[in-house]
Amino acid sequence: MPAHLGLPSQVTLREQPERERDSTLVEGIARSDRASLETVYREFSGAVKTTAWRVLRDDSLSEDVVQDVFVSLWKEPGRFDPDRGSLRAFLLTLAHRRAVDIVRSEQARTRREETVPESVAGDIDEEVWALTVGEKVRSALSNLADGERQAIALAYLHGLSYVEVAEKLGAPEGTVKSRIRSGMRKLSVSLGEVRT
């Protein structure tokens, strides 16, 4: 905006005391005056980047911080309070905080990627154990005689009583009980090493 429309010229701005000058520039930014933002950027972007770089030690991330700081100033110029310090100090504080946030975020991300949550590790252990035991049980069941395997499957896997198993298999109840006892003894021997 030209000086005759109410904004001081660059020469006039330089002649003002720092506090007054900072307030004038931020007031211009609050009115969406890009020239005021450009002036602030030109004057302080180098210091903002240096502050960020001291924390991050990375040019690209430091540039991101510079952009974040000036976008923040553009969007919320009212956050600057001249009574609490200079515009330079305000911008450098924003830069430092943003850089520290980036470092913390990166550290947290790295920790998350390197650490398997205990619940997941426990779930995996349990699943492997269940698969191992399940495979051993299937193998042990396949070694039983057909009558024993059928009686045990109906009684233990399907929850039928001895009477119901006997009816299903068309065998006397005593025979079914005998097959189940015999099969369970064989399974106990076969699965002895699986017990915890």
In whole angstroms, the N-to-C terminal distance is 82 Å
Strand count, sense and barrel status of the largest sheet are:
none
Helix coverage percent:
over 70%
Gross morphology is rod-shaped
**Residue windows where pLDDT falls under 50 for at least 5 positions:** 1-6
How large is the count of helical segments?
9
Oligomeric nature of the chains:
single chain
Mean residue pLDDT? 83
β-sheet strand percentage: under 5%
Instruction: Write down the Rg.
Output: 39 Å
| Strands, count | 0
Order of helices and strands: HHHHHHHHH
Judged by helices, strands and strand pairing, the structural class is mainly alpha
Q: Can you describe this structure?
A:
- This protein is mainly α and 196 residues long.
- The protein contains nine helices and no strands.
- It has helices at residues 10-15, 18-30, 34-56, 59-75, 87-114, 118-142, 146-157, 162-169, 173-190.
- Helix 3 (34-56) packs antiparallel against helix 4 and helix 8 crosses helix 9 (173-190).
- Residues 1-6 have low confidence and may be disordered.
What's the gist of this structure?
With 196 residues, the chain is mostly helical. It has helices at residues 10-15, 18-30, 34-56, 59-75, 87-114, 118-142, 146-157, 162-169, 173-190.
Supply database-style keywords.
single chain, 196 residues, mainly alpha, rod-shaped
What topology emerges from the helices and strands here?
Layout: H1 10-15, H2 18-30, H3 34-56, H4 59-75, H5 87-114, H6 118-142, H7 146-157, H8 162-169, H9 173-190
Helix pairs in contact: 2-3, 3-4, 3-5, 4-5, 6-9, 7-8, 7-9, 8-9
